[in-house]
């Protein structure tokens, strides 16, 4: 690898470590609680001390950093999907699938969540129709009785 490519990559890392203009505009701490729970659930050190029991939550700085990283990633992903979708005039799920097509774990997770969402929609539809039938039967019985 040449020295010029090393210098260019370090410049990219330095530039990307600075907060973007979108992250400076947004309201911070919106997802604080959710990230604390997720980080603990995924094995973050619970900061156990002999003085404090039960374990406390992850460090606020760690939670804030994770929130910044995830929000910036999602924002960039949505902007890229909007660019792709603007060619057709609308944003769709396929735009997101297209963006993650080369990252198989993400693509598999997306498709899994989409199929689960479809199953939940079908279950709600069945539940609502069953509920309507029961309500109709109950109303008919109360009118007759």
From TrEMBL:
Location relative to the cell: Nucleus
Swiss-Prot/TrEMBL keywords: Nucleus, Transcription, Transcription regulation
SUPFAM superfamilies (UniProt xref): Histone-fold
Lineage: superkingdom: Eukaryota
Family annotation (Gene3D superfamilies): Histone, subunit A (1.10.20.10)
CDD domains: HFD_TAF13
Biased composition (Polar residues): 1-22
Annotated Gene Ontology cellular component terms: nucleus
Region (Disordered): 1-30
Family per similarity comment: Belongs to the TAF13 family.
UniProt name for this protein: Transcription initiation factor TFIID subunit 13
Organism: Flemingia macrophylla
